[in-house]
Amino acid sequence: MAAASTGGGLFRTDGGVKASSGLDIDAEVHEAWSRVRSGDATWILLEYEGKNKLKLRASGTSGPELVSGLVDDQVLFGGLRTKAGKFLCLMCTGADVGGMAKGRAAAHKNAAFNALEGTVGEVCALSKDEFVQLLISFAVAEDEATLLTVMTRGLATEIEVPHGKDLGYAKNRAIDKLWQNIPFCHAVAALSNLRMFDADSGEELQEGEAVQDGMKLLLALEEPGEGPSAAASAFASVVSAVGRHKLGLDGSGNAGSSREELQKLSLKELKKRLQEAGLSADGCLEKSDLVDRLLDNKKAFLPSTGDKEAAAQLAEFVSGNRKVPVDTYFIDSRSAAFLQAAPDGKQLCENLNFLGGFGVREIHGLTVAFLSGCGPKNGLGKNGFQGQSLQLI
Fold first, then answer.
1. Could you say which of 44, 54, 149, 208 has the lowest number of CB atoms within 10 Å?
2. Which fold has domain 133-220?
3. Which of 39, 101, 96 is nearest to 71 (CA)?
4. pLDDT tens digits, 24-57
């Protein structure tokens, strides 16, 4: 929903003309909404006075207060400010509201929402229960099987879900927040394959079960047991460190720069970063063009800084000094060191495999298309991929 503008008419979203809805908004509503916008309040509720006028019913700062103000025998409108600072319109149609009143409220909906400036979305419900938010905490287990699936420690989050939703819905909401902290491409799939357990009792829970407020859940590949072995911990740490560095999640390199940070750099520094990423400044007429190009490609073209450190960390496993505890496959980075040495791929040691330049492979029942390295338009030498590599894949 676009930001709403103030007005008393019925805004038609089907391209038709704006027609009068006959709805009157009490002046106190605008004063109360300005307090929400300024931060003095968090929400307001509006109720009917007669059949064609909305007046202020209540205003407050807490979620429980808002829910307690909802009733089953009225249609209430309102607005709120989220924790993220966004403003949303509200409409709650009580379960006992009659058909005529529902129809009248539906005709007034957009006029009521238009009265609240700055809103960017809406929350509509058919009962009080739908506004009740349940707080659930998720943590990812650190037993060996789970750690070697996500390669990351300390994953945890809290989410709010509406009353009536099941654990499958809650798990997906948690994954939306957790996957960004896992430094490899199939993070969502890895988390989706984990099972849910009650953190206190250890009982496995199913996705279709109802959410209960205050639940503490553990995501694990199998029933959580003892912690990981030293070998598994060491390997997971290496993979996590290398992956986070490559994706610019460790505070080093250039991939994590925000637009604001990039705007502060000189033209010379911006062009240098483009060159380091194997990108061209051709066609960039303004500073903003250089910034856009870096931001558009920061995830596709990984930083080269730290490749030597990454190779040193992997060397202990490649040499056989440490055992790789789980089947692992990787592609090359911008340095293309592995790509030039083994364009067709190579098993470096037990459980550690370089895939090669490009192609499609079956790995444990999963079809994987891959493309190694990145670089300037003229490619990476005789073993680097060219434009036709994409077509062949």
1. 208
2. Ubiquitin-like (UB roll) (3.10.20)
3. 96
4. 999 999 999 999 999 889 999 999 999 999 999 9
Superfamily of domain 9-131: Severin (3.40.20.10)
What are the pLDDT digits (tens) for 170-185? 999 999 999 988 877 7
Cβ neighbours of 100 (radius 10 Å): 9
Please give the model's pTM, rounded to 2 decimal places.
0.53
Residue 352's DSSP bridge partners are 328, 349
Q: Do the two domains 9-131 and 133-220 of this chain adopt the same fold?
A: no
For residue 189, what are the contacts with CB-CB under 8 A and spacing of at least 6?
Answer: none
Query: Per-residue pLDDT tens for 264-296?
Result: 788 888 887 776 655 677 877 788 888 877 776
